[in-house]
Amino acid sequence: MKDEILISDEHIAKLSKRVAKTFSIDEEEAISTIYEEWELVEALFHAHTKVKAVHSHLVDAINHAYRIA
What we know:
Layout: H1 9-23, H2 27-36, H3 38-48, H4 51-66
Helix pairs in contact: 1-2, 1-4, 3-4
């Protein structure tokens, strides 16, 4: 059984603000992107716990997956 991690609404809000700023989108689109990549976000929070580190790795993964640079 995979260990589950609870991700607080505060962490999601901080992450969405960072993602929105990075990609120049609004926070609603950022939250949508976060939930589209939810399995990755969960894995990143499990590995790193800090929003800044999760943001960095998530942006790298999105850039690689969608070829946005």
